[in-house]
């Protein structure tokens, strides 16, 4: 009932002053949730720079951070679509592995080798659509469905390479994984992996904020029953978001394959879903759906990459890195709760 | 009835400089039913929350219980002071038993283990006294709404409360359950409890109230004793003006009535709706009356395809249409305003702009799917101006608006598709009097423009005030139709007779 208090206080807020103050507060709230973790990211960067005695802000190290963030950014972008509808996709790590295996296997066939990239993408899309169909049409809980495919698709990934590591040192489009786009010759370049990640973020933003489908995604996450009554095809929205998540996992698989020239169905992408979810939540997207932004996800993914990179730079042991990252996840969810208190849905 | 049990003197409460309550004096005696009335936003909830300890009043006022000044602090403060509140939305845990709910927060344990037996025995006498037809060991999830209310009352009695505050207790009760509740309230009054009864419904206040206190804009504007309780006096106090022109019906039901637009024939869902047919003509406002649970909302859901039908068909402007989802209904031009705007209507976190445009995004979009933001903005601005929606701007989340403004936002979404048929389910529930009359005039104007309108409402004066004829449902069937005579208005008793299936009804 706390909203009663607000509505009781409302009638008096008709003065222009009150309305202006209300707008300002509203803007502040939007700004805070939009900026979200950006200050945290900056503080982390500066902190690591100082603690590592100036080794963080170097062209080379920043390149490494961007490259390390790339795959997780792509996975987290897909995860953002899913979590915005109030769902979850636990299977992205497995789908990534299966897609990479499918791509690499195909790339070794001389006449079809060039098709490995679309094959990896389609493999991811296919698994994603199956997830979506199970969730939307059979109305099974997303957690259960994707927990199942986490295991099943991992099995398929191993099956694809007969449970061995598949190598292809001459894989086409290898520049995706290891090349850089030269911005200013000899001065500035940016890894292709990072370019792809940024493009994925940009496309996601366009879809979420500039298309009818985007509004429908937010609507389904905000209130699924109301969305149904408002004439939104909820099933189609759900299949779409899980399809996107699968497609981006497939893209992540292709990126990994091009980078490593190899894939192993058992090891590749293990527990990647956790990093992706962490990035989304760190980015301010609410776990209950309907609230969040793709830019937040980018910031979240960068925080994770900066944490890993910075902790290594300052010589924190591998074991403590786990502890610290875990605490960051819990802190992020605590923030999520805190943020929800300020929203209309109390 | 000599010494008051509760006295409030000069109690105020402000939120961020806005006065929600201004120096309210309220006196309640033991053994009386004191009705508290007022529009939404008049300060009833704030007053209640002060008594329950959820809010702390501004300094300066005084609250006395049985003559002693008290400070009510924290959620348990009210109960400690002998005050229990039964909220509109009941606060029971459905997964626990009746006894566990009554003892919630004060469980009896023996060496660390729950003493379930003792607890069950402890609540037995109270349940008997209330005439409960269920056991202490029953799961609350298996109880009807009326029975759950009884559990709430039992909880209050068990806490030895002397003052019982009830907030719109009959909202989700059937007529029979309401009658039983009234009898129980009278019994509690005879036992010496003071009951503060908050309600919007005039008939309940007539039936129960020993005194009526009316709040408006945070002020106490008047108290009436039993002989002076009259509807027009109360409404005048609540609104602060004469409301003879409250219900607006300028459209001409005879001349304006056009061809049949919506015809539902023999609709059934296999459960709550058992073969219902009705027709709505262009420019006509048809009321759909009936008791709660008669199947009115379910029939509306069948018409718009929100639930699958087991039989029946639909004709739109004389042509058969097959509508299987709410989306198809909207495309065909049938819009439905839900009775539960928070759960089924609005997206509270989304902006008013998005909420208003949601149904026409696809129609407006460029290249089929790219949002046309200028058009959306324009439409939202038009809706804000046309329906006088009051909010800082179209970008604020819908959840921050008052009930009346939320309802107008939701209505704007439906009007955006320019519907041929508009089904309004409890259009003024939880809406203040000002917004109510605005909604009535919107309905009137739509009828003038030729829209076929079906209004589901439990508020009989509203149905009579704005409708041209009334179809009455009872237990899933159409019980009959009430029309107006040449010079006689729609008759409330005729409607109630059909709705209840009795020839005679008092109360």
Please give a quick description of this structure.
Chain A: Keywords: Cell membrane, Membrane, Transmembrane, Transmembrane helix. The complex is a heterodimer of chains A (346) and B (507). With 346 residues, chain A is mostly helical.
Q: Helical stretch count of chain A?
A: 15
Distance between the termini of chain A: 8 Å
The overall pLDDT of chain B, averaged over residues, is 86
- Please tally the helical runs of chain B, counting DSSP H or I stretches of 4 or more residues: 19
Q: Identify the most extensive interface between protein chains.
A: A-B, 44 and 58 residues
What is the β-strand count of chain B?
A: 22
Low-confidence stretches of chain A: 1-16
The amount of helix of chain A comes to over 70%
Strand share of the residues of chain B? 15-25%
CATH architecture of chain A: Orthogonal Bundle
Bin the strand percentage of chain A.
under 5%
For the record, give the distance between the C-alpha atoms at the N and C termini of chain B, rounded to a whole number. 26 Å
Q: Please name the CATH topology of chain A.
A: ABC transporter involved in vitamin B12 uptake, BtuC
The main sheet of chain A orders its strands as 1-4
CATH secondary-structure class of chain A: Mainly Alpha
> Which structural class do the helices and strands of chain B define?
alpha/beta
Count of beta strands of chain A: 4
Radius of gyration of chain A: 21 Å
CATH-level-2 architecture of the largest domain in chain B: 3-Layer(aba) Sandwich
**What's the number of structural domains of chain B?**
2
Residue runs with pLDDT of under 50 for 5 or more positions of chain B = 503-507
């Amino acid at each position: 009932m706390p909203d009663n208090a607000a509505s009781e206080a409302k009638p008096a807020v008709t003065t222009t002053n009150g309305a202006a103050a209300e707008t300002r507060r509203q803007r502040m709230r939007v700004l805070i949730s939009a900026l979200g973790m950006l200050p945290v990211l900056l503080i982390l960067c500066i902190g690591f720079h100082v603690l590592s005695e100036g080794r963080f802000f170097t062209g080379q190290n920043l390149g490494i951070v961007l490259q390390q963030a790339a795959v997780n950014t792509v996975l987290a972008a897909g995860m953002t679509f899913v979590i915005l509808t109030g769902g979850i996709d636990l299977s992205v790590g497995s789908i990534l592995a299966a897609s990479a295996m499918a791509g690499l296997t195909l790339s070794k066939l001389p006449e079809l080798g060039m098709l490995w990239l679309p094959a990896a993408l389609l493999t991811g899309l296919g698994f994603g659509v199956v997830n979506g169909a199970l969730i939307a049409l059979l109305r099974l809980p997303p957690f259960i469905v994707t927990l199942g495919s986490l295991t099943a698709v991992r099995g398929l990934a191993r099956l694809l390479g007969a449970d061995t590591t598949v190598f292809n040192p001459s894989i086409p489009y290898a520049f995706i994984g290891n090349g850089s786009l030269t911005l200013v010759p000899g001065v500035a370049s940016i890894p292709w992996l990072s370019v792809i990640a940024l493009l994925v973020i940009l496309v996601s933003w366009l879809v979420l904020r500039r298309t009818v489908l985007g509004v429908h995604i937010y609507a389904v996450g905000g209130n699924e029953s109301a969305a149904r009554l408002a004439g939104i095809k909820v099933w189609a929205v759900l299949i779409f978001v899980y399809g996107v998540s699968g497609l981006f996992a497939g893209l992540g698989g292709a990126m990994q394959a091009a980078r490593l020239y190899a894939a192993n169905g058992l090891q590749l992408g293990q527990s990647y879903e956790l990093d992706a979810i962490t990035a989304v939540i760190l980015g301010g997207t609410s776990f209950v759906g309907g609230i969040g932004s793709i830019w937040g996800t980018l910031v979240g993914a960068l925080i994770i990459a900066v944490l890993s990179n910075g902790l290594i730079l300052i010589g924190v042991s591998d074991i403590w890195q786990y502890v610290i990252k875990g605490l960051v996840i819990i802190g992020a969810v605590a923030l999520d709760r805190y943020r929800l208190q300020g929203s209309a849905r109390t | 009835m000599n010494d008051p049990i509760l006295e409030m003197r000069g109690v105020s409460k402000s939120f961020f400089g806005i006065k929600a309550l201004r120096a309210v004096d309220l006196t309640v005696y033991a053994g009386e039913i004191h009705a508290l009335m007022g529009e939404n936003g008049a300060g009833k909830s704030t007053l209640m929350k002060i008594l329950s300890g959820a809010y702390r009043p501004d300094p300066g006022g005084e609250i006395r219980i049985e003559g002693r000044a008290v400070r009510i602090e924290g959620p348990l403060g009210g109960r400690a002071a002998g005050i229990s509140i039964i909220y509109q939305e009941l606060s029971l845990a459905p997964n626990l038993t009746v006894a566990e709910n009554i003892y919630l927060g004060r469980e009896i344990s023996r060496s660390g283990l729950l003493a379930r037996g003792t607890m069950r025995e402890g609540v037995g006498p109270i349940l008997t006294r209330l005439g409960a037809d269920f056991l202490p060991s029953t799961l609350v999830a298996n109880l009807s709404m009326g029975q759950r209310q009884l559990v709430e009352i039992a909880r209050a009695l068990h806490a030895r409360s002397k003052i019982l505050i009830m907030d719109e207790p009959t909202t989700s009760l059937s007529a029979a359950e309401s009658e039983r509740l009234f009898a129980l309230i009278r019994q509690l009054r005879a036992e010496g409890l003071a009951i503060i009864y908050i309600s919007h419904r005039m008939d309940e206040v007539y039936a129960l109230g020993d005194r009526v206190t009316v709040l408006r804009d945070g002020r106490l504007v008047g108290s009436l004793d039993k002989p002076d309780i009259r509807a027009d006096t109360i409404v005048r106090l609540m609104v602060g003006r004469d409301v003879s022109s409250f219900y607006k019906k300028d459209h001409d039901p005879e001349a304006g009535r056009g061809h049949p637009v919506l015809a539902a024939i023999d609709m059934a869902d296999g459960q709550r709706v058992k073969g219902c047919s009705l027709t709505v003509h262009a420019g006509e406002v048809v009321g759909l009356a009936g008791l709660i649970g008669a199947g009115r909302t379910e029939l509306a859901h069948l018409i718009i395809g929100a639930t699958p039908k087991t039989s029946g068909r639909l004709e739109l402007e004389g042509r058969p249409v097959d509508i299987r989802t709410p989306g198809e209904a909207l495309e065909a031009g049938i819009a439905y305003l839900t009775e539960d705007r928070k759960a089924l209507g609005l997206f509270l976190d989304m902006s008013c702009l998005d909420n208003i445009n949601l149904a026409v995004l696809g129609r407006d979009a460029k290249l089929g799917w790219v949002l046309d933001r200028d058009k959306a903005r324009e439409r939202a601005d038009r809706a804000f101006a046309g329906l006088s929606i009051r909010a800082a701007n179209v970008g604020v989340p819908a959840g921050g608006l008052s009930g009346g403004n939320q309802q107008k936002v939701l209505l704007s979404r439906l009007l955006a598709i320019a519907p041929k048929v508009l089904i309004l389910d409890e259009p003024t529930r939880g809406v203040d009097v000002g917004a109510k009359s605005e909604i009535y005039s919107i309905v009137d104007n739509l009828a003038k423009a030729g829209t076929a309108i079906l209004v589901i409402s439990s508020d009989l004066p509203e149905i009579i005030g704005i409708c041209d004829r009334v179809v009455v449902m009872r237990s899933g069937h159409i019980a009959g139709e009430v029309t107006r005579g040449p010079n006689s208005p729609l008759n409330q008793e005729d409607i109630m007779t059909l709705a209840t299936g009795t020839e005679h009804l008092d109360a």
